Amino acid sequence: MTQPIDFYFEFSSPYGYIATEIAEETEKRIGRPMTWRPMLLGPVFKITGQQPLVQVPMKSEYSKHDFVRSARKHGVPFYYPQKFPINTVAAVRAFYWTQDHDPEKARPLAKALYRTYFRDGRDISVIETLLEVARSVGIDADALSRALEDPALKERTKREVDASIAAGVFGSPYFIVDGEPFWGVDRMPMLEDWVKSGGW
Amino acid sequence: MTQPIDFYFEFSSPYGYIATEIAEETEKRIGRPMTWRPMLLGPVFKITGQQPLVQVPMKSEYSKHDFVRSARKHGVPFYYPQKFPINTVAAVRAFYWTQDHDPEKARPLAKALYRTYFRDGRDISVIETLLEVARSVGIDADALSRALEDPALKERTKREVDASIAAGVFGSPYFIVDGEPFWGVDRMPMLEDWVKSGGW
Questions:
Q1: For A4-58, what is each residue's pLDDT tens digit?
Q2: How far is the alpha carbon of B70 from chain A, nearest alpha carbon, in Å?
Q3: Considering the entire predicted model, what is its pTM?
Q4: Cβ–Cβ of B48/A65 closer than 8 Å?
Q5: H helices within chain B, ranges in order?
Q6: What are the backbone dihedrals phi and psi of residue B180, each rounded to the nearest 5 degrees, phi first?
């Protein structure tokens, strides 16, 4: 039972943000490592025919209220960004490049990107902002800047996103443990029960 | 703080079924009564542009797995019905008629309808089946049978469904306590926390 838990998230997802803030505590409590796998919901919406929550009539108002309430429940500062959702492909590329070149910095980068977007309200789809965040966690931002234009990194990212879709990931956050999928930050207690009890 | 909690559900919703099986325990623990309010998701889907979960690519497989897993977690027998989803307008009418004429039987009717559909796999959109279920909980099925054709009951039901939509209800189960909405059987612990703590 030492296979890591796959932890998928989209950088434009408030629930994904909350999940990255609490996942490491979950990880410690259950004694199973997680592999962080940022992905993109854009290609998922093309398959499901759905839209971001905040663009769906009726669900929109509930979601905006629930983002704030859920964050507050977990003690996570959250401010609804003016520009939302945003395109996060560059953030995902930056994550996987960091994973490959400076792996210890990958989680700090993910958390800093989320905080920049959902605490500071700054648009992380802007490359200068993205690089500034990378620099703030000690990543070589010049090397990253060059890498972001590299077709190999684009291809590497595309493979990850395709793999997440092939694994059935349609939302954020989304966890897979021993083949068992859990969708949503509100399902993290269920994931924890599942792992601790060996399933039911 | 004695205002009842509004508890909305759709008879074709597996999560609504699970909620009716556990809501009375929640009610006892939190010491707040609930008003049961069956509604219809069909008109909601027209507004949101969405479809039943099991008709959405990617979400479909997850949902079918999760219905079973969630029911098992709560110790609720559940079998995926062959015909799903179904039109539940007659079930909703039967509920409100019972509410008005034999109110003590309304919750037993709701639970028996759900069990007939999700335990026994029988189609409760068939009027004969619906009446048989009503009779099994001690309701005057002949009177109900006549009432189901009555425009006044149709109108009464339509008003309830319209009111649920006006209240923002877009899913099942859905709870509103002191204006605070909670969507999903997996949010019932959050609702309970909210009521016990006075919110956060």
A1: 999 999 999 999 999 999 999 999 999 999 999 999 999 999 999 999 999 999 9
A2: 9
A3: 0.95
A4: no
A5: 14-30, 42-48, 59-73, 89-101, 106-118, 127-136, 141-147, 151-166, 188-197
A6: -95, 120
